[in-house]
Structures are given as structure tokens and as C-alpha cells.
Amino acid sequence: MKATMMKNINQYALITGATSGIGYELAKLFARNNYNLVIVARDQQELNSKAMEFKQYGINVITIAADLFQRENAFSVYDEIKSREITIDVLVNDAGQGLYGEFKDTDINRELAIIDLNISSLVILTKCFLKEMTSRNSGKILNLASIASKAPGPWQSVYHGTKAFVLSFTEAIREEVKDFDITVTALLPGVTDTDFFNKADMLRSKIVQDKDSMADPADVAKDGFDALMDGKDKVISGFKNKVQVGMDNIMSDSAAAHSMNEQQKPADND
């Protein structure tokens, strides 16, 4: 372990959504393993606070405040890193958000912004840094998918659709770069105890009523970190989620959609 950590000195991991939830826990793991960090989020104050915490591990931390709901800002993040002459050895695309409600009733502009965050900004950052990784024949990319990628999601139709894209996209580019010394991994968490459900206006959903059944974001992050370091294509975090994905794989899409509808509809709809 010590030899591996020493090898990471002078390497940089770029993590979006690094100030909370799974992204924050991933940033801690990379810091503990001697990676320098570039952390990206919208709130500069939060970034400064987390940077002070991460620096206690004896690493360098660079903060970039950027709103990745606007996809042009993903190009700006890349340009800023290039201007600082920093090489990104690991890219972690964690930033993502959902929106709860039936599609006929939800705000289309918010959904389009979520598509830009969950898909467009992820694709932009991946393309920019993957080009550099292939040119030097080294690098790692971890994309946050979700078990939502494996089934249609009534009450979160756009979110589930974006995560299905992320998983498919990640598996495709992994195959394209298989002859390079590059790892591309998808992390598929289930219901996790983060602020995601509050931001998605989803607190009345049946699936989030039992907080005791939610996964610890630190455990999810560890699963993703270990899978990336082991060169795996993807990891489903948590035994219960592995079982659910297994069931979704053998059900028809319509049956999987019905099952997800029963899990995600408002608790007061029964």
C-alpha cells in the first residue's frame, strides 16, 4: 500500500461534485492515497472549506468554481487546467442531479439543464482528458452511473435516461481504449444517504422513506475507488443493489418500469 501511495505523488485527480456526497468521499480517498486534487463544484466557499480539509493529507488542492449545468463551463474547466499546465491522471465525473415528478408535470428547462450536467458536461470533460490520456498512454476515468441506468424510472424518467447513457457511453469508450494503459470504470450506486433526494425534490418518494436502508456514501466511494484501481469495467455498490439489477436484467422493460414505479411513487399515493 505504501509503495502504491508513493507512486501517486505528483499525480492529480480531477473530481466534479467534490464537496458533498459520493464525490466528497471519493476526494477523501484520493487524498489519503497521495493524489493531488482538482475539485470542481459551484460554491467557492464550500470548495475552500473542503480544500482546507483535504490539504491536511499533505497534498496540493486546486479549486475551480464552475456551474456544470451549463455545458460550456466544462470547456472552461479544461481550459483553466491547461493554463495551469496540470496533467490530470484521474478524471472522476461525479456531478449529477435528478428531478422528481411525472414527466408531464415537471419543468422542461430544469430537465434540459440536468441533461447538460449529467451527460453533456461529462462527455466534454471525458473527451478533453481522454485525448490527453491516449496521447501519453496512461490514465483513469471513473464515471458515476447508477443502478438507475439498468431500468426505466417512472417519477425520475430523465434522470434514469441520463444514467443509462452514462453506463452505455462508459462501456463503449472503455472498449475503444482497451489497447491503451487506460482504465474506464462505471460506478453504479443505489439509494445513498446524500443530499441528492433533497435537491431532486424527492423526499416524498417511497424509496427514500427508510433512511436506515440507504447506503453510506463512504462505502459507495470505496467500492468505486477499488474498482477503478483494479481496472474493472463497472461495479454495482451493495448486495441489495446487485440483487435488484439481477432481477431487472431478467424482467421485461415494462415489468421493470412497473416495479420502479411502485418503488418511486409518492408514499401518500397508496
Care to describe what's here?
- The chain contains ten helices and seven strands.
- By secondary structure, the protein is an alpha/beta fold.
- It has one domain: 3-Layer(aba) Sandwich (Rossmann fold), CATH 3.40.50.
- It has a seven-stranded parallel sheet with strand order 3-2-1-4-5-6-7, with helices on both faces.
- β2, α3 and β3 form a beta-alpha-beta unit.
- α2 crosses α8 and α4 runs parallel beside α5 (108-136).
- The protein starts with a helix and ends in a 6-residue tail after the last helix.
- The mean pLDDT is 90.
User: What would the average pLDDT be, to the nearest integer?
Assistant: 90
- H/I helix tally: 10
> What would you report as the Rg, rounded to the nearest angstrom?
18 Å
Q: What string gives the helices and strands in order? A: HEHEHEHEHEHEHHEHH
Here the CATH topology equals Rossmann fold
- Overall geometry: globular
| Strand order, largest beta sheet | 3-2-1-4-5-6-7
Question: What is the element layout, followed by pairings?
Answer:
Elements: H1 2-7, E1 12-16, H2 21-32, E2 36-41, H3 44-55, E3 61-65, H4 72-83, E4 90-93, H5 108-136, E5 139-144, H6 157-176, E6 182-188, H7 196-199, H8 217-229, E7 234-236, H9 239-250, H10 253-264
Parallel strand pairs: 1-2, 1-4, 2-3, 4-5, 5-6, 6-7
Helix pairs in contact: 2-8, 4-5, 5-6
